[in-house]
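Here is the promised in-class demo. Please do not try to memorize the tokens; focus on the logic of going from shape to residues.
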């Protein structure tokens, strides 16, 4: 008689491949965290151009991850696991060889597509391969642990390689890890679940166009002006496309995003906080990285240490958070988590860019990490415990998309806020600062041009004015460039401090709003143990049984 719980062929190989794949995806995703200041100085780019290094990855990841889940179900998941690893190799190789920022954007976008395949496919593969519910639960926990490990190690790895070599070595490490993942994945067991699955091409197209147009307009508007015709057109295209996406999803038989779930009050609140709360979290991470790296030019190694304070609690507190979700109403867990995130943001908003040091961020970043640990798993728990069991996988996948959309908005919105404030202050005060510096016509013209085109971030990164002292001679040791006058550099520096102080405060307010919403909106929500008793089963184990729709991250 056969053992129904015996491990299927290549189960261990599949588990190893999936865990390694999700770690590689998270390493690639988290890599810019400690390096934003280095990128800004090496490429000498504006604030919006710097933002796109992170936003390009997140945007393509969010746009394609649901579709990759469907493709894996229809045509086999193993080939997507292999293809995702190769896309990360290609994207990281382009970034490692980039001599200008546009190639970085392309590389990050390609790597983001690869990660958009690896996240859902790796989880679906181990859920499908596990022999029973208990094995699935252990496998999913291990998968989540490797994801957290990648998020914790990536900024520190990038910082160390940059400190003792070059930031390009960090992308080389990503290439090596992705190639190892590809080789290991060759031994994984393939799986699929094509029944009832089909592509939603109109939904995919309108979602892609809408998100890309909206994020582009938000990013560029801070530099070229919110009333600029191209920015207005970008917003219009984004809104119209996303409205079209909603109409399509409500009418199609097999939608990408199950909007009918939002008729459930508790689920709708969890969805809203998934976007707003996770925007606050990643917005604070990004703002810290820019404040220290691109503005104060702090060492990437020190920024990497701070990311350990953020991601460490998410890894170390897994047992505690699991018990809290199981025995305490998620209303209290979520409210506490968002309160900690809000406190972290408020503390950071009070820092003075002229006097603050990187050690000032240790306490707020630790609070941020604990708050994130309390919220990220609880949001999914609320989503899956408030819908019928047959819809649990759909609810989880939809919540995951909303959470990732919040992550994508983090860098974009905080940069839009901070750069708008900083660039306006620079434009208002640059004429007086140039006059105070007593510059010649050529140097004054160059400074005004940089201020108009690149804004505060570009001026802050330039130690010299890119015009030789004697314009009639070639630049060189006997004809050096003039050092940037202190009046101009101080203006740019303080303007960026004002901008990111406001960004910290906005993130704090969004986290606080999420906490208030969960405190009052989730009144009556029950702990997971009570929901499991009502359903007659363990919800998290049953989620694994509908893994065709699961996209938990």
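The designed amino acids, position by position:
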């Amino acid at each position: 008689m056969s053992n129904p719980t015996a491990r299927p062929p290549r189960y261990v190989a599949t588990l190893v491949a999936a865990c390694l794949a999700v770690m590689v995806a998270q390493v690639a995703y988290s890599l810019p965290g400690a390096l934003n200041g280095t990128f800004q100085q090496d490429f000498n780019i504006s604030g919006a151009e710097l933002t796109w290094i992170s936003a390009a990855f997140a945007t393509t990841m969010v746009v394609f991850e649901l579709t990759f889940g469907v493709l894996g179900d229809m045509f086999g998941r193993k080939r997507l696991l292999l293809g995702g690893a190769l896309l990360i190799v290609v994207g990281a190789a382009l970034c490692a060889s980039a001599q200008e920022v546009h190639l970085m954007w392309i590389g990050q976008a390609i790597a983001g597509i690869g990660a958009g395949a690896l996240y859902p496919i790796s989880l679906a593969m181990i859920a499908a391969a596990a022999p029973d519910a208990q094995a699935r639960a252990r496998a999913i926990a291990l998968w989540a642990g490797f994801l957290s490990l990648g998020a914790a190690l990536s900024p520190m790895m990038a910082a160390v390689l940059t400190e003792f070599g070059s930031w390009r070595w960090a992308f080389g490490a990503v290439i090596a890890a992705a190639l190892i993942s590809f080789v290991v994945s060759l031994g994984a067991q393939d799986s699929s679940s094509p029944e009832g699955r089909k592509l939603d091409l109109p939904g995919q197209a309108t979602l892609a166009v809408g998100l890309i147009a909206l994020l582009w307009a938000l990013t560029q508007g801070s530099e070229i002006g919110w009333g600029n015709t191209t920015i207005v057109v970008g917003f219009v295209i984004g809104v119209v496309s996303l409205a079209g996406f909603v109409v399509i999803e409500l009418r199609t038989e097999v939608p990408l995003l199950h909007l009918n779930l939002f008729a459930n009050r508790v689920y709708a609140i969890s969805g809203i906080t998934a976007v707003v709360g996770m925007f606050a979290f990643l917005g604070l991470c990004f703002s810290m990285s820019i404040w220290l790296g691109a503005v104060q030019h702090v060492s990437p190694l020190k920024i990497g240490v701070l990311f350990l304070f953020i991601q460490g609690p998410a890894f170390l507190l897994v047992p505690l958070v699991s018990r809290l979700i199981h025995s305490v109403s998620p209303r209290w867990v979520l409210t506490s988590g968002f309160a900690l995130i809000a406190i972290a943001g408020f503390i950071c908003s009070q820092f003075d860019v002229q006097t603050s040091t990187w050690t000032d961020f240790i306490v707020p970043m630790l609070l941020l990490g604990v708050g994130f640990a309390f919220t990220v798993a609880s949001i999914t728990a609320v989503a899956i415990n408030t819908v019928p069991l047959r819809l649990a996988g759909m609810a989880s996948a939809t919540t995951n998309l909303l959470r990732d959309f919040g992550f994508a908005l983090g860098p974009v919105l905080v940069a839009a806020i901070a750069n708008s404030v900083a660039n306006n202050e620079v434009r208002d005060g640059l004429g007086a600062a140039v006059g105070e510096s007593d510059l010649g016509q050529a140097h004054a013209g160059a400074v005004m041009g940089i201020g108009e085109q690149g804004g505060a971030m570009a001026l802050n990164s330039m130690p010299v004015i890119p015009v030789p002292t004697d314009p009639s001679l070639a630049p060189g040791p006997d004809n050096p460039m003039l050092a940037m006058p202190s009046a101009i550099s101080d203006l740019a520096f303080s303007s960026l401090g004002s901008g990111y102080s406001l960004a910290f405060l906005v993130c704090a307010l969004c986290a606080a709003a999420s906490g208030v919403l969960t405190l009052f909106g989730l009144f009556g929500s029950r702990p997971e143990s009570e929901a499991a008793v009502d359903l007659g089963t363990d919800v998290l184990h049953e989620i694994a049984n509908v893994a065709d729709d699961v996209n938990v991250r």
